[in-house]
Write a structure and sequence with these properties.
The complex is a heterodimer. Chain A is of the alpha/beta class. Helices cover 38% and strands 19% of the residues of chain A. In chain A, helix 33 links the parallel strand 34 and strand 35. Chain A is globular. The mean pLDDT of chain A is 93. Helices cover 21% and strands 32% of the residues of chain B. Chain B is globular and about 60 Å long. The chains are: A alpha/beta, B alpha/beta. At the A-B interface, strand 11, helix 9 and helix 17 of A face helix 3 and strand 15 of B.
Chain lengths: 1081, 368
């Protein structure tokens, strides 16, 4: 069928901010879809609040709306742009839900907009548990026994039919949010109440537990001519009970015979037809009872998903791109396979390697939550690796994670060895039975302890096939310490074929030959010519010639991708997403690639994150899907011999490699590793600040508790403490007294001479400012000055900020620019730089300097309208700013406000209070001609329900009582009824603002504030706290606000901005405007 | 570590691949080795190794599996496509000894050993596949006897390969027999040219099925009073099967004739068409085939090294299906004489069931 000519303009809905369960895979998919639609000649309109995406680059589509992804806002854009069709399947659950709301409200019909890709009845049937169950019954497929309930009361009655253990699945949520396993009646009601509150439709499915069953996924595509293809099968290493996003998964399925696989494939095809997804891709999950092969259907997603992104990377088949083309009427046989060029997209990829996906967790950020995995997703990122065997693939995945583990070696051998035998046995039994983020290392332990395979399987339910391969790896482990290894080519080769890293081999060698370094192992290996070869991902297991250099390393015989003779630059990517390092850095890498290609270089990308645009084979001239370790990157660099390597785009990941690479003789482009190191080294850096005559909070470096106490005493409390070399403020805290400092030194960090603790005077009440700049050695261009909305002490990644500043004087801003310039010159920055300042009593203090791309680069680029990462890439490759025609533009006629988005709901028991340790997973941006409206949009984009009236609860610490008054006055002026705790109420009444009293929780009298919040009586919360006790007291307030979606502020600055936003909303809300429009003058 | 006996795969063009022996040529290092010769063919299916090994069409061929882990789910009699294992040799990246699947009754290595199939693992099967893709189907020798590699290459060169060889006679059944007799159903007489069990299973769900050997005369077939004649899949060069083609010619116009794979090629020749050898054939479970009339695409299981040249077919014979990968002929049909055949495997096993309804079409075409 030819593509549709009756459609001219199509709107695509993006996924909004990165949250757990919905990450940058939707930027990858969305960008592909937008590009594909444009390629077919359609005009594309996009809404996505996430500024760090490639899809929101002004070049990606014709009209880009960086606006909240809500039905209301999308409706306004539809009204303005009048597209013919809406593609709802590219923006994850958010995009789908928004489209459903627009369709159900009649808005699409009213505006004559057609849903393409998936129609409303199909979406409903896939998403509504009852309808889905019924549909499966009609085509003779099994689903788990289940009942859908809408209240706790109903649930109580239904529980008896379903039985325990039971899985609770709220309808219309993403990443299994609110889902849980109820093991017995006692905990059931509490879990159900939470699940009901999480579902936007207050609907929860109570489901027979298939815990421990084998779990599979199929990615299936269908076109308008009803042709179906299964693109990829995925088998979960972790059986049912762990969310698939948190499971180690392997492609293709390993333990299914053809008979079983075809039965599953038949089911998948029958399901996509029955549900009525008329074209596009769907993801279908199955569980298989291992003893008799009984197959049940778990769920279906009628859209592109995290798994479809993984399947695309695992096979080379670009599901989102093809899905977009199918949506406009093309059929699979009409679309060419990009990789082979000669064959069509209507086939099923055959792969000749094993792909392993491994989730990346950050439980350490949320110590209040036990590190246990269940049906709610908690991982914040993932890595993918490719090897010719499962073992090689798995070992590559482990070292891709960047958690300082390079294989299956015991992470804590001393502690483990110190345990008694009985203790070890009990610990293992528990660790295997209750899945946690490091279960695979526990499996390795059990094997080392001599547990038989059957027992490990019994406890963990992990399929014996996987266990057998891990056993083989553990058996080989002994070889890593063999005395002649560095001279024994055959033995070394065997280890490398099985994925053992130089790093782990070095550690094992060290035991016998102290001083054996990774470098020594590498050099010995290179001398013996034990080197990897590189093979292509080609969709067809080598049956046809492939034209896309999408490569992976393996210890095999033939290298099929010799480097070209062109001038080339390698960009090292950011690895797995984690809190503190996410999509923003991938954005920078992609821009770097684009700029280098424009400048005539062959751009080479190295990364291991399957969710990203950078690992799309379409992005760079050559893609290496490889772990970002010294070993793996050096293998690539040594064969490619690039002009240089760019390490400043991928966040901390490549920076950590910079010195090692340089030591190995690799040319690093841009700011030198020495300069980077200089800014990370406190002592050197302090001297530099002093030399330049700049100010810095008084500080010191402690290697043990006594020295820490001494330093704190001399600079004065409160102090900010953190380990050196950290990312995202890991283990960073504000400490108010000596007791706390001792606790911190003892518990939070294990300080040593190699890993000192940094202690800074904490500037209470200061305003933080981020400045981004780009420099070429001759000139320094200030990209943007961003004023934080939260006060100093909140990690910059967690703080909302405004570009341009909304309250700073011109003089201060000029002074910050001046300081940034002299810092850039002194450090000899070539490329990007970010400086964090604190303004305290009118004086600027330098907090830190990062001579690399910061997470604000995409945000600044979009607000200002200049792609700074591209500029920086050209500079690093040797061009001059003057020649690139980039000028500093002082006058912005609009504000861009960035707001952070947090995963607190996923982590029960966690306090939502912000501090110096970064906790946000993503960000949104709001743009408007004035600051309050931009702030409002940012809040709405982050999912806050900004009220325009109702009841406001105010409770602030003593220092804030004065600053709180104007906010309260503004609230009262808008007609809010104010309720306050005793002290705050006194201050309000004294100043002529009427407020009624509400009980604190610790007062013991009911109803207290939390009761009233739960009763739906409170619409806005302003709550600031001081000291530990007060924080603890107000914890339940913040947690309730979070769970009940009540708009809350924990700082005065945010409160002020919030009041402004409410006023802006009352005065007519939020007009929508495209980025292209903002920047066209 | 396992006691490993080395094995060498020597190609007629001089390329050597070294690996570890298993299957019938495995065993202890230093023991007596084994040797096999045949034409190399790669199969890209990721599941279904047991069906492939027991498919008689692989007679004369050494099968390379492109998926690197083979043996994962063990073996079971339920997955056998015929009574024996026919591939001359089996070549994999890695043999899986620790299988895991509730259906499994044993491991692949023992299975191959019992059936006398020499095997090798530890081969860079992707390199080997790429080589065949470029050089075309090559003759080769697999040996675990420890001979001189140059001698093995010479032996590979001298080996007969597939061209011009009648391999059907090695694999056809010994005598006519019934297959799940269904009284009152229309009779189909099927030539067993090396058939896969599942083709007969599918036919037997629709016909009263009688099976005859490849040499059965047309007269004897007609004497049975069939409503349909079926020509099965099978090994070797279709151009070397003149005796079958001649019999089929006699059947044309007397009874509707259908066929699959080799049967399709024989039918084409009986109609006056010619076959030619493909560079490396179609062997896998992911081949898109388009129905010329409906434009619908089925993902099919395929296993053929030769194809029918559609230009050589007489007028009145329609090419009903085409491969979307290389546009070769995948099906033909004519109403006078009444013939209908496909090149691909609608019975799947291994592979997708997309085209199973083709057996209904056969039925409708012959009986309806």
């Amino acid at each position: 069928m030819p593509k549709r000519a009756d459609i001219r303009k199509i709107m695509v809905i993006g996924a909004g901010p990165i949250v757990i369960g919905q990450a940058c895979e939707f930027d990858y998919s969305g960008t592909q879809a937008c590009k594909a639609l444009r390629e077919e000649g359609y005009e594309v309109v996009l809404v996505n609040s996430n500024p760090a995406t490639i899809m929101t680059d002004p070049e990606t589509v014709g009209a880009t709306y960086v606006e909240p992804v809500t039905a209301e806002v999308a409706g306004k854009i539809l009204e303005k742009e009048r597209p013919d069709a809406l593609l709802p399947t590219m923006g994850g659950q958010t995009g789908l839900n928004t489209a459903v709301e627009l369709a159900e409200s009649g808005e699409l019909d009213r505006l004559g907009v057609e849903l393409i890709g998936a129609k409303l009845p199909a979406i409903r049937c896939a998403e509504d548990r009852e309808l889905f169950k019924k549909a499966m019954g009609e085509i003779g497929l099994n689903v788990p026994r289940s009942r859908t309930v809408n209240s706790v009361e109903e649930g109580r009655r239904a529980a008896a039919d379903v039985g325990f253990p039971m899985i609770l699945r709220p309808a219309f949520t993403l990443g299994g949010s609110g889902g849980a396993v109820a093991w017995r009646e006692a905990e059931f009601e509490g879990l159900l109440a939470w699940a009901l509150s999480e579902s936007p439709t207050s609907q929860v499915l109570l489901e027979e537990s298939a815990l421990g069953w084998k779990e599979f996924e199929l990615e299936v595509m269908r076109d308008l001519a009803d042709n179906c293809s299964v693109i990829c099968s995925i088998e979960n290493f972790d059986p049912m009970g762990v969310h698939t996003g948190d499971s180690i998964t392997v492609a293709p399925a390993q333990t299914l015979s053809d008979v079983e696989y075809q039965a599953m494939r038949d089911a998948a095809v029958a399901i996509i037809r029955k549900i009525g997804v008329e074209c596009g891709g769907s993801n279908i999950q199955f569980a298989l009872y291992p003893r008799d092969g009984r197959m049940i259907v778990i769920e279906m997603n009628p859209r592109v998903s995290r798994s479809s992104a993984l399947a695309s990377k695992a096979t080379g088949f670009p599901i989102a791109k093809i899905a977009a083309k199918l949506a406009v009427g093309l059929t699979l046989d009409e679309i060419p396979n990009d990789i082979t060029r000669k064959t069509p997209a209507s086939f099923e990829p055959a792969i000749d390697y094993v792909v392993t996906k491994f989730p990346r967790f950050t439980f350490e950020k949320f110590p209040e939550t036990p590190a246990v995995l269940d049906t709610q997703m908690r991982s914040v990122g993932e890595v993918m690796s490719i090897g010719r065997t499962f073992r090689e693939s798995l070992m590559k995945a482990l070292r891709s994670l960047e958690i300082d583990r390079y294989g299956l070696a015991d992470p804590e051998p001393a502690a483990w060895a110190a345990m008694g035998e009985g203790e070890r046995e009990a610990a293992l039994e528990e660790a295997l039975r209750v899945p946690g983020p490091d279960r695979i290392w526990q499996v390795a332990r059990a094997i080392r302890e001599g547990w038989p395979r059957g027992r490990i399987h019994e406890a963990s339910k992990i399929d014996p096939w996987f266990l057998a391969h891990i056993e083989e790896l553990i058996a080989l482990e002994a070889e890593t310490g063999a005395p002649d290894l560095l001279k024994n080519r055959e033995r070394m080769r065997l280890l490398k074929e099985n994925g053992f890293s130089d790093r782990e081999i070095a550690a094992a060698q060290e035991a016998a030959a102290p001083g054996t370094t990774e470098r020594a192992v590498r050099e010995a290996r290179w001398r013996m010519a034990v080197r990897p070869v590189f093979k292509q991902v080609d969709t067809c297991a080598a049956e046809f010639e492939a034209h896309t250099p999408y490569l992976y390393s393996t210890y095999e015989q033939e290298d099929e991708a010799p480097p070209t003779g062109k001038g080339k630059v390698i960009i090292l990517g950011g690895g797995p997403n984690r809190i503190g390092q996410g999509l923003e850095f991938d954005y920078c890498c992609v821009h770097g690639v684009m700029a280098l290609s424009t400048a005539g270089y062959e751009s080479i990308m190295v990364n291991c994150n399957p969710e990203t645009v950078s690992t799309d084979y379409d992005t760079s001239d050559r893609l290496y899907f490889e772990p970002l370790t010294l070993e793996d990157t050096l293998e690539i660099i040594s064969r490619e011999r690039p002009k240089g390597v760019i390490v400043q785009f991928g966040g901390q990941t490549p920076l950590k490699l910079a010195l090692g690479l340089q030591e190995a003789g690799v040319p690093i482009l841009g700011t030198s590793p020495q300069s980077i190191d200089l800014t990370e080294d406190r002592e050197q850096f302090s001297r530099l600040i002093e030399e330049l005559g700049l100010a810095q909070p008084p500080s010191g470096t402690a290697t043990d508790t006594p020295s820490a106490l001494e330093i704190a005493e001399s600079i004065g409390y409160p102090v900010l403490v953190r380990p050196s070399y950290v990312l995202g403020g890991r283990a960073m805290q504000i400490v108010f007294d000596a007791d706390d400092l001792e606790t911190y030194m003892r518990e939070a960090v294990r300080a040593s001479a190699e890993r000192p603790v940094l202690i800074d005077r904490f500037l209470d009440g200061a305003i933080e400012v981020d400045v981004d700049a780009v420099a070429d050695g001759e000139r320094v261009i200030i990209a943007g000055v961003m004023e934080h909305i939260e006060e100093a002490g909140v990690h910059s990644g967690d703080s909302a900020c405004s570009l341009p500043p909304y309250s700073l004087s011109g003089e201060i801003v000029d002074e910050l620019k001046r300081q940034t310039r002299i810092l850039a010159e002194k450090i000899e920055v070539k490329g990007l730089m970010n400086v964090q300042f604190a303004i305290h009593n009118g004086r600027a203090y330098v907090i830190e300097v990062n001579p690399r791309a910061s997470r604000t680069v995409p945000y600044v680029s979009k607000v200002v309208g200049i792609p700074f990462a591209k500029v920086a890439a050209r500079v690093m490759a040797g061009e001059r700013l003057a020649d690139l025609g980039v000028r500093e533009d002082a006058s912005l006629r609009h504000f861009g406000v960035k707001e952070a988005v947090f995963p607190f709901k996923k982590f029960p028991g966690v306090d939502v209070l912000l501090g110096p340790e970064m906790k946000s997973t993503g960000e949104v941006m709001g743009m408007a001609p004035d600051f309050p409206t931009a702030f409002l949009k940012a809040q709405q984009g982050a999912g806050e329900v900004v009220p325009t009236g109702g009841r406001a609860f105010v409770s602030v610490r003593d220092e804030d009582k004065g600053a709180m008054l104007p906010i309260a006055r503004a609230l009262a002026g808008m007609g809010f009824e104010i309720v306050a705790t005793e002290g705050t109420r006194a201050a309000l009444v004294q100043n002529g603002i009427s407020a009624s009293l509400v009980h604190k929780v610790i007062d013991g009298e009911r109803p207290h504030i939390v009761d009233r919040m739960e009763g739906g009586e409170i619409d806005f919360v302003l709550n600031t706290t001081a000291g530990k006790q007060s924080r603890r007291d107000s914890y339940s307030i913040r947690r309730t606000a979070l769970l009940r979606n009540i708009f809350y502020c924990t700082t005065i600055a945010a409160g002020q901005a919030a009041a402004g936003a409410m006023r802006s909303l009352r005065e007519g809300g939020t007009p929508v405007r495209s980025l292209q429009d903002y920047h066209s003058g | 570590m396992r006691d490993i006996r080395p094995a060498v795969l020597a190609l007629e063009d001089g390329r050597i691949f070294r690996g570890r022996a298993f299957g019938s040529c495995g065993g202890r290092a230093g023991g007596v080795g084994e040797m096999a010769e045949g034409e190399l063919v790669f199969n890209t299916a990721m599941t279904g190794y047991q069906e492939i090994i027991t498919d008689p069409s692989y007679r004369g061929q050494m099968v390379i599996m492109t998926y690197p882990h083979i043996g994962n789910y063990g073996v079971t009699p339920a997955d056998e496509e015929s009574r024996g294992a026919w591939a001359e040799a089996f070549i994999v990246k890695e043999l899986c000894r620790d299988y895991s699947n509730h259906r499994a009754g044993g491991d692949l290595d023992s299975y191959l050993k019992e059936r006398g199939v020499p095997c090798v693992e530890g081969i860079d099967t992707r390199a080997l596949t790429r080589h065949i893709r470029e050089a075309g189907a090559l003759k080769a020798v697999l040996s675990s006897c420890g001979e001189d590699e140059a001698a093995l290459v010479a032996r590979a060169k001298a080996s007969p390969g597939l061209d011009g060889r009648d391999l059907v006679r090695d694999v056809t059944c010994g005598a006519a027999h019934t297959f799940g007799k269904k009284k009152g159903w229309p009779l189909c007489v099927a030539y067993d040219l090396g058939a896969k069990r599942n083709i007969f299973e599918q036919l037997a769900e629709r016909f009263d099925l009688e099976i005859v050997p490849a040499s059965e005369s047309a007269e004897s077939v007609l004497a049975r009073g069939p409503r349909a004649v079926f020509l099965s899949n099978g090994p070797g060069d279709p151009a070397a099967l003149g005796y079958i083609v001649e019999n089929v010619k006699k059947l044309l116009g007397r009874v509707p004739v259908t066929g699959i794979c080799l049967g399709h090629q024989i039918l084409g020749q009986a109609l006056g068409g010619k076959t030619f050898k493909l560079k490396f054939g179609h062997h896998g479970a992911n081949h898109p085939v388009q129905d010329a009339e409906t434009r619908r695409v089925a993902i099919t299981s395929q296993n053929h090294s030769f194809a029918l040249d559609p230009a050589s077919l007489p007028e009145g014979v329609a090419v009903t299906h085409a491969s979307l990968n290389d546009h070769t002929c995948e099906g033909l049909r004519s109403n006078d004489p009444k013939v209908f055949s496909v090149q691909y495997h609608p019975e799947a096993c291994p592979g997708p069931h997309d085209a199973r309804e083709l057996f209904d079409e056969f039925y409708g075409f012959c009986v309806g």
